[in-house]
Design a protein that fits this description.
globular, alpha/beta, Glutaconate Coenzyme A-transferase
Length: 286
């Protein structure tokens, strides 16, 4: 049952050291504000699950929150490498990072299986690729009805899912519009969830054709954080800040510049920083 609360309280109650966490959002609605709160609260030894690890995971890895990454692609979209991710893999800084790599299709199917309460995902895939050579969790099974050989991996059942959405109502029902990714499946597959939203409204508006509504009984914590997906975009609220993704390449390339930026912009600030961005964008649009 959804509980409307502050971001600090939601993370404190939902995210614990050693948890497996999925912070999802595909180019759109990426939960940056929630990621920063996890870092501020000093969570450690986390296993992060994500289809496309980008800036939020680079920040968490660089701040020493992460011991393992389960993923299908990792990079700074449109720019290049994630330098903190790369430093952890190549040099063990700030400490070693265990990797479990999958294909996009496998990750999506694993979320779907987890949301359905199934122990594994079965699909056509991994034919002719080398990932099975480095990932022991990729198995081959034979269909008992057709004899076809299929791929199988364990379902994703995170301890916590963290997503961002446009709106929630006061009962905690959450509406997501635009590029959906696997946010719905991540929440349904997880034991606990935190959903940050642009605004809490009295009543959800009329649904667009591809909108998803997560009923309040599927959601753990709902938090109003305007601008909480910045620098990614939130359809209907603000665009993607492409310049920041380019800036991040220089910020994260060096350990000292990374740590200085994180202190100034994350450790010494709270979710109000995201609220101020949303207000500035709204004022500029008017």
């Amino acid at each position: 049952m959804a509980r409307i609360t502050s971001l600090a309280d939601a993370i404190a109650m939902a995210v614990h050291d050693g948890d497996t966490i999925a912070l999802e959002g595909f180019t759109h609605l990426i939960p940056h504000a929630a990621c920063h709160e996890i870092i501020r609260q000093g969570r450690k030894n986390l296993t992060l699950v994500r289809m496309t690890p980008d800036l939020v995971y680079d920040q968490m890895i660089g701040m020493g929150c992460v011991s393992k990454l389960v993923f299908s692609w990792g990079g700074n979209p449109g720019v290049g490498s994630l330098h903190r991710f790369r430093d952890a893999v190549e040099n063990g800084w700030p400490h070693k990072l265990e990797l479990e790599e999958h294909s996009h299709a496998a990750m999506a199917n694993a979320y779907e299986a987890g949301a359905s309460g199934l122990p594994c995902a079965i699909f056509r895939g991994y034919i002719g690729g080398d990932l099975p050579k480095v990932n022991a969790k990729i198995k081959r099974i034979t269909c008992p009805f057709t004899g076809e050989e299929l791929a199988a991996i364990p379902s994703h059942r995170p301890d916590v899912a963290v997503i961002h959405a446009q709106r929630a109502d006061r009962a905690g029902n959450v509406m997501i519009e635009g590029v959906l990714g696997v946010q719905k499946e991540a929440v349904l597959a997880s034991k606990r969830s935190v959903v940050t939203v642009e605004e809490i409204v009295d009543e959800l508006p009329e649904r667009s054709l591809n909108a998803v509504v997560l009923p309040h009984w599927t959601v753990g914590h709902v938090v109003e954080v305007p601008g909480g997906a910045f620098p990614s975009y939130a359809q209907g609220y603000y665009p993607r800040n492409n310049s920041f993704y380019k800036q991040w390449d220089d910020i994260a390339k060096d350990r000292d510049s990374f740590q200085a930026w994180m202190k100034t912009n994350v450790l010494d600030k709270g979710p109000d920083a995201f609220v101020q961005y949303a207000r500035k964008h709204k004022a500029a649009a008017e």
